[in-house]
Amino acid sequence: MSLIDIDLSAPGILGREAGLQADVKRSHYPCLILNADYQPLSYFPLSLWSWQDAVKAVFLDRVAVVNEYKQVVRSASFEMPIPSVVALKDYVPQNRSPAFTRFNLFLRDGFECVYCSSPDELTFDHLIPRRLGGKTSWTNIVAACSRCNLRKGGRLARDAGMRPRQLPFRPTMHQLQAQGRKFPPNHLHESWLDYLYWDIELKSETE
Ligand SMILES: [Zn+2]
Question: What is the Å distance from ligand 1's center to 135 Cα?
């Protein structure tokens, strides 16, 4: 049996720490996945693997371990700390086209109303109203607070005396990732923070 075939969920594979064996689930000890350039593979959703997948990737030599939990996994033939951050050895090009989802649309517009910049009660506004043939697409939907949405109603923005601060556009993955860095998730393992924040800090130094 190769190391990869080991059933990592089998009893006894985890370390001795009291209580852990009983309640370890796949959701515990998530591992942050960095691309080969040490940027997270994805911010939204944050690129995470279960610890089992992370340990397998280490054995397959697909990733370098960047940081670790204190918790150890062991079997008869091996023992290793659970990785908390790993970096892929092969760079994955980030040229996918972002999905047209509600979340990605809010992300593109910075979770703010394009008319008044309020972050509250965000809804979606058809720039060209549906009754005038406006489509539900990247280039016609903007984030708008419910107050502005109500005020605009079924009219064109200019007929309502309103003006979006930017016209809607189809974002690239790179643009969404850049937006994502402004909104780091709240619940992070402490060893992840460096990888989520360092580029922002570098940027602010030069500004
Ligand atoms: Zn508004």
Answer: 21
How far is the C-alpha of 55 from the C-alpha of 10, rounded, in Å? 14
Cα of 146 vs centre of ligand 1, distance in Å, is: 7
Ligand 1 centroid from CA 50, angstroms: 40
Write the pLDDT tens digit of every residue in 54-95: 999 999 999 999 999 999 988 888 889 999 999 999 988 876
Predicted local distance difference test score (pLDDT) of residue 59: 92
What distance in angstroms lies between residue 112's CA and the mean position of ligand 1's atoms?
Answer: 8
- 96 Cα–ligand 1 center, Å: 31
Where in the sequence of the chain do the CATH 1.10.30.50 domains occur?
102-160
| Residues 34/94, Cβ–Cβ less than 8 Å | no
Place of tokens 């393992």: 189
* Cβ count within 10 A of residue 4: 11
Under CATH, what is the fold of the domain 102-160? DNA Binding (I), subunit A (1.10.30)
Quick one: tokens of 203? 């940027």
pTM, two decimal places: 0.57
Cα(164) to centroid(ligand 1), Å? 10
